[in-house]
Protein 1
Amino acid sequence: MDFNINSPILFLLVGVIVAAVLGQSVFFLVKAWKRGREIGMPKEKLKKIASTAAVFTIAPAVAIVISVITLSKDLGLPLPWLRLSVVGSLSYETIAASNAEGAMGLVFGQVSNLTASQYITVAGVMTVSIMLGIWLVPVVCKRLLGGMISMEGRDKKWGEIFTNAMFIGMISAFLGYVFCDFLGVFSGDLRGLIPVLVMFVSAIIMVLCGLVKKRLGWRWIADYALPISLILGMASAIPITAMLS
Amino acid sequence: MNKNMSYMDSVHRCGRIWNLSMTVVLLLFPLAVGLIFGAAPDWHGFWMGVIATAPMYWAVAVVETFTFIPMLGAGGSYLSFVTGNISNLKLPVAINALEQAEVKASSEEGEIVSTIAIAVSSIVTTVIIIIGVILIRPLTPLLNAPVLEPAFSQILPALFGALGVVFISKNWKISIAPVLLMLVLFIFVPALNAGTVGIMVPVGVLFTLAVSRIMYKKGML
């Protein structure tokens, strides 16, 4: 069979794997939902959690589709579809593909027709190099969460602070990232202000949603405050970028 | 309590089976392509590619596993480490759901809430990618339109601006030191940028835990 990076058989193989990934998500969703109902969590509450998560996911998922399109120029459509439906990300896949292609004397971004051998080499590098997390979780997850529960049992207040501190630690890293090009502002390059202003717009919208809920009693706006802030924050990037670029 | 334990035990059992099976399935892809097209990998290229790529990502995976599991919960962890996009999608979805449901991450309700949020997010992401693949021809010019490019390149600032204002206002005492540290590091260290922010997450988490512990011991919290 002649090899082509967009061969129908590749779509079929990837489709089967993506169906398995979808199956795992549906399995855990059903399991958690059933358990939630068993312990008396109201159906409405569970539905609200699910619908907020779905709405919130749309914009980042569209960004992932853009990454698929970007990678498909070099690797065809099936492989980026697979890689970005599982553990991958645009930056990781680009680095892994560049390293694999570079090792075979190719230049990422300038390859028009990979051979079958080159293709499976690139796919193998992309798969193996990011595999660790998938099988490390089964090894450590139970023990790690058991340790968290016993720590909370010993000191409930510290247990709560511990969880909040982890969330704050992660958020602080991303807030720092927002300012990574800020230094350029002092030498006249205002583009470093774009992410900072977008962050403030999004934060202000989040605060406004909270105020609207408090003043007008619109509970729904609090439920969808994060997706609303995300979308409007992203939308604000368009005029902000036009002004500062 | 027994029922509670048995639910968690079954989540861990199923999670292990799913994740180990997915590991095999993912490894089978290049193998199947090789068998179908009668091709062998370029072993030199493969090993050179793995040596150039894997050490950093394996190190990050170890740190991320220990950092993210306590925040994601059991079901959420098994799912997130297969479906990916943890810090930019699955974790914010879980945090927001916990906040919305007003439950603690370590409680059984918290476990259920974060699992549902992450599972729904994974399903929606997978379905949107499938739609994107099917409609790639008409969608490509639209999604690659220059006017939309700034919006999609500013997802993280928009996301963490909104999440940050909620969590920092509720935990402002433990937020000051890590936010200041990260601002100084990201502003003044040129190597820190979009590509390295993932590595700084565990640094931020460990630093915040250390500062919080000191403040807690001194009775400041």
Protein 2
Amino acid sequence: MVKIADYASSSAVANVRTALERAKQYEAHHALLNLTETRALERAAKVESGEITGKLAGVPFVVKDNFLAFGAPTTAASTMLENFNAPLQATAVERLEAEGAICIGKANLDAFAHGGSTENSAFGPTKNAIDDTRVAGGSSGGSAVVTALDIVPFALGTDTGGSIRQPASFNGVYGVKPTYGTVSRYGVVAMASSTDTIGCLTTTADDAALVMSIMAGKDERDMTTLPNFFTPEATVLPLRIGLVAESMNDDVDADVRAATSAYAEKLRAAGHTVEEVSMPILKYTLAMYYIIVPAEISSNLARYDGIRYGYRAEALTLAELYGKTRDEGFVTENKRRIMIGSYVLSSGFFDAYYQQAQKARTLLIAEYQKLFETYDVLLGPVTPTPAFKLGENTGDPIKMYLTDIMTVPASLAGLPALSVPAGTNEAGLPIGIQLTGWRRSDARLLALASSMEAN
Amino acid sequence: MTQISRDDVLHLAQLSSLQLTDDEVDNLRADIANILGYVEQLGELDTTGVEPTYQVTDLENVWRNDEVIDSGIDREQLLALAPASASNSVKVPKVL
């Protein structure tokens, strides 16, 4: 697969043209909603003339279409924002552009990033890069597929409960969900503000470290951003690694367990210590997530009212305008989550659901904290199975939510977690393993993953 | 298992400013009952005396100077985003 360094020796215009050609060649996968062809070629010409320089000069990339970015509408894969032309760019995009990177298109996602298969896109699903009868994963499905198909060497995604890690594992690429607050969320369509993170999908761990180091850091426009802490690490000392027993039970596909065990053996062979650890609270984390996140979604999506921007339905009264705009502008999964959020925040239910989930979250963080007193890294699978069939889980929201069961814990605790390619099953479907660390250990996780690539 | 009636769904839809079609009401009633049935298992956890966690930044009281930061966006650009506008304002249906 292509990596960032492969683009250094050719011209920016040639890089962009190749990326656009490949995007068109794989159109049937429906990984991209719009190309930003005109703007990309203009920027490429400026790189060639020397007007734009930097660490990523002339390197093409793709953004998930919930990043505000110029050159094409920012749709969040929704009817609500189908024609929304962003008046500003996300800080993450600005920082990459400041280093000369060139955005060539905008990737498909589940509408408003609600989903785990990209089947909730208002514009149709993205197909898996390896098997086009299977899902891309989600919600950053388009970003994973464009990376896996070598259309671009890296793509941006958002991860609220696994939306970078899960599609990365389904398509055999790296996915980084950083420590909460690592990258500014300014200019990114908000989903659940206490777990929303910005990260990337790449074909090597070192490329991920490079992209993250450029995007990371304090931003006055997002007061939750952490002071700069992200410095790529070159060396890896022997680490103490915990293999999470609860993520290796019979509910998990045998091939996925075998790939995880094999990775554990590779880690041991490389001089690291791997021991089985237990996190009894893990079985409750999906329930916590599907209370807390819908609650935050119901607040964040209140802004889509048909008044100031986005879709507006025909209506005679203001109440009808709100109601019809939101009914027609959102997909079913958006409505489910908004209404669950309204329910758990209602007086009478607030203590039993929302407050209980936030208290349980404290217990989850305490379990992690205790483990990280002894261990540097936790290891487990990313998902219980490889990519499932298109349509397989669409009729049952709980079945779809269960695919997030191993990725939501790190999100609720604000921890960094990587999806690392770890081979395939017999049918050739990629399997990913997950490395989780304590807050701000992102660079160490990436250095560990990089050191294992050679083994 | 939580019982969710049609009226409950209509009430939630009203709280959420969603004007649902009849088919949607029936489907969402079943979905919401199933989802609430799943998340109810959290009641098994003893959280007596546990403080809730609302944010995970480990940052506290992040201050900045009370200064206007130019967004670089002007009024015309923002008005152009509105579905309807007139006289330098966003146009909406009659409220009163």
